[in-house]
Specification:
The chain is an alpha+beta fold and 286 residues long. The chain contains 8 helices and 13 strands. The protein has helices spanning 23-29, 63-72, 80-86, 91-97, 140-152, 165-169, 213-230, 272-285, and strands spanning 4-9, 33-38, 50-53, 76-77, 106-108, 121-125, 135-137, 157-161, 171-177, 180-187, 206-209, 239-246, 252-258.
Length: 286
């Protein structure tokens, strides 16, 4: 089954950041007619068989509007229900409560007072993309000011102890397509790096990676738990990216589960990955 596929972007990056350039010919080769369109444009998304979120990285400033748009699109991947759950990082607390090894996470809602870890920690908005609004601190004074700033903008603040392994080994991103493992790539430390010209995300240093068995096992457990919380099958997720770091004991921890608009690192893996992506799109429609 083929038809019309739309890769959804934002006005600042109407055709994405380049990583998805290979997606268009891959989908075309399987019989799709493919185009790009910003989510808030006049494009008729209801006429497409597959509407695929790829570079909607301005949603954080207009999440309510973005979610309303998602719910208006009949054939959205991933679904509007998944997007609603995943665009607020409070899902990390749900996964913690489900018994998953997650980087310790606490939420500070507007009007609440924060409690900071004794060692270095990170503060970020619970709704955000591209590491915007995230900062590392070693003391409470500046961090309190940062939390107050996030609260003033209506954000819940998320606090996590800084994982020092990021400085030496970075993050490991495991990509799943149609619920099945596809490939992995590494990401260097982002805090302190420069903003991309679009102003939507911090520049990343990426490289191909082969995930160790314990990281794969964690990713599998995370996807199973998330699917259970969402009441769906793993196969219903067109794409998922599980970001893993090492804790102080050397064991893998979930940093983030990206189900909305993650970069999938096609430039850091073999050409078979994008073919698997195109095939997964066909699977969703079937």
């Amino acid at each position: 089954m083929t038809g019309t596929a739309v890769l959804v972007s934002c006005a600042e990056l109407p055709t994405g950041d380049g990583d998805d350039d290979v997606v268009v010919p891959a989908l075309t080769s399987l019989g799709f007619s493919v185009s790009w369109a910003p989510w808030d444009s006049s494009f008729d998304f209801s006429a497409a068989e597959a509407v695929i979120l790829r570079a909607t990285w301005d949603y954080a400033a207009r999440r309510a509007e973005f979610l309303a748009w998602c719910e208006s699109v009949p054939s959205l991947f991933n679904s509007a229900a998944v997007v609603r759950w995943n665009t607020d990082k409070s899902y990390l607390v749900e996964l913690l409560d489900a018994g998953l090894p997650v980087v310790p996470t606490s939420l500070v809602t507007p009007g609440s007072s924060p409690s900071f870890p004794s060692s270095d920690f990170v503060v970020k908005p619970s709704v955000g993309a591209g590491s915007r609004g995230a900062a590392r601190f070693s003391g409470g004074a500046d961090a309190s000011s940062h939390v107050a700033g996030l609260h003033a903008e209506g954000h819940t603040a998320l606090i996590q102890p800084y994982q020092s392994s990021v400085d030496t080994s970075g993050e490991l991103a495991l990509v799943y397509l149609g619920g099945i493992y596809s490939h992995a790539f590494s990401k260097g430390a982002m805090l302190g790096s420069t903003m991309d010209a679009s102003g939507l995300y911090l520049a990343e240093e990426l490289a191909p990676a082969t995930p160790p068995a314990d990281a794969v096992a964690l990713a599998e457990d995370v996807l199973d738990a998330a699917s259970a919380l969402l009441g769906i099958l793993r196969a219903e997720l067109l794409y998922a990216r599980v970001d893993v770091v090492r804790g102080t004991d050397g064991k893998p921890l979930l940093l983030e589960l990206e189900l909305t608009e993650p970069s999938l690192g096609f430039g850091q893996t073999d050409t078979g990955a994008v073919t698997r992506f195109a095939s997964a799109v066909r699977q969703q429609l079937a």
